[in-house]
Specification:
Layout (H helix, E strand, L loop, with lengths): L1 E4 L4 H12 L5 E5 L19 E5 L5 H11 L3 E4 L6 H6 L2 H23 L3 H6 L1 E7 L24 H20 L3 E6 L1 E3 L8 H11 L3 E4 L5 E6 H14 L5 E4 L4 E3 H15 L9 E4 L14 H7 L7 H14 L1 H9 L17
Parallel strand pairs: 1-2, 1-4, 2-3, 4-5, 5-6, 6-10, 7-9, 8-12
Antiparallel strand pairs: 9-11
Bound molecules: nicotinamide-adenine-dinucleotide (NAD) and thymidine-5'-diphosphate.
Length: 353
């Protein structure tokens, strides 16, 4: 089986749903169910024989040791994190605790598990550390895109905490031999993204007729990667990536924030004729230390592992808006807080740690 951390979040839930839809090995999902963890994301797997859930903290060493001893995963896909830049500016402590301390505890536990595996299993074991392009800092308009050798220059507390985690992951590989692979991907979008992030927030506000907040001039550039493409890239790296290497993953879709907001408005205008959603755009105060541009040079993963994104941004954003239109209950459950009620502690029938 594989252990996925943070599987109730946006990317983690997409990863587990895709993984089990392809009849791969069973998955153990370790998730603390913070505000960002939505148990309903994996509702469809409740009675799936290959899915197990444990509510717990990646910083809990005793729990990690028990889980690894009991389940003996052949890989760890580490997605659990505090992930929102604005929250890291308002209060960095949980970012340090989960992204830095938590990741380090997970690396320690993984090392203990890996070092007790028989040689063939140890050779096949992988620790996949899922990171972000934000660790590289900000690019100017004409700078070349981030390659894997671009220096780390994180600017926000979020990106500093992810950069720190990446350095520890590298150290556990270099010093202890743990077969770690790190991926640095660009901004994901798609279904089930927590509605504090740009795309779901704009969709939600537009549907409610509320202002669409664009930070500063809105000309900051991000590369947008559909979450399904990200999941296929992670599977590729897990299957074929080389321990000790890092791989950049992008969507080949650089857009300014204003372009993204207008793209969403166009799809909504078609879906709800008679309204001009772009009239709701409002420029608001800029984010402190706002990075100007991120861009991914994906030549390494393309040439060495044969992976490239399949979803064009225009189609991906159309599908994403349609998903939010068809799943208004999902967003409503977050705004009402209902998604946190009755959250499972774990699946006791299948877990005895
Ligand atoms: P998310 O915020 O939607 O989900 C994070 C999940 O981690 C939640 O389910 C939460 O409950 C869980 N979690 C948080 N702290 C935990 C802890 N201490 N122990 C166990 N579980 C904990 O995040 P996401 O957008 O799905 O991102 C997943 C990973 O991908 C993160 O590492 C993030 O840094 C990285 N990433 C995300 C993006 C993006 O655009 N969303 C881009 C690049 C990299
Ligand atoms: P976000 O989704 O928070 O991702 P990240 O900060 O990790 O890139 O933001 C994407 C971009 O959109 C970023 O440049 C900040 C901007 N933004 C807005 O202009 N308005 C908003 O309300 C939000 C949440 C983000």
């Amino acid at each position: 089986m594989i252990l996925v951390t943070g599987g109730c979040g946006f990317i983690g839930s997409a990863f587990i749903l895709d993984w089990l839809a392809q009849d791969r090995e069973p998955v153990l999902n370790l998730d603390l169910l913070t505000y960002a963890g939505h148990p309903g994301n994996l509702q469809a797997l409740q009675s799936h024989s290959g899915y197990r859930f444990v509510r717990g903290d990646i910083g809990d060493q005793a729990l990690l040791a028990a889980l690894l001893r009991e389940h003996r995963p052949r890989a760890i896909v580490h997605l659990a994190a505090e992930s929102h830049v604005d929250r890291s500016i308002a209060g960095p402590d949980p970012f340090i605790q989960t992204n830095v301390v938590g990741t380090t505890r997970l690396l320690q536990a993984a090392h203990g598990h890996w070092s007790r595996l028989p040689p063939a299993e140890a050779a096949a074991f992988r620790f996949l550390n899922v990171s972000t392009d934000e660790v590289f800092g900000s690019l100017g308009a004409d700078d070349p895109a981030f390659s894997e050798t671009h220096p780390y220059r994180p600017n926000s507390p979020y990106s500093a905490s992810k950069a720190s985690a990446d350095h520890f992951a590298r150290a556990w590989c270099h010093t202890f031999g743990l077969p770690v692979i790190t991926t640095n991907c660009s901004n994901n979008y798609g279904p089930r993204q927590f509605p504090e992030k740009l795309i779901p927030l704009v969709i939600h506000h537009a549907l409610a007729g509320r202002p669409l907040p664009v930070y500063g001039d809105g000309l900051q550039v991000r590369d947008w990667l559909h979450v399904n493409d990200h999941c296929s890239a992670l599977r590729t790296v897990l299957d074929q990536g080389r321990p000790g290497e890092t791989y950049n993953i992008g969507g080949r879709s650089e857009r300014t924030n204003l372009e993204v907001v207008h793209a969403i408005c166009r799809v909504l205008d078609e879906a709800r004729p008679g309204r001009r959603h772009a009239e709701l755009i409002r420029h608001v105060d800029d984010r402190c230390g706002h990075d100007r541009r991120y861009a991914i040079d994906d030549r390494k993963i393309a040439s060495q592992l044969g992976w490239k994104p399949a979803v064009a941004f225009e189609q991906g954003i159309r599908d994403t808006v349609q998903w939010y239109l068809a799943n208004s209950d999902w967003v409503a459950s977050i705004h009402s807080g209902a998604y946190r009620q009755g959250a499972p502690q774990s699946n006791p029938a299948r877990h005895s740690a």
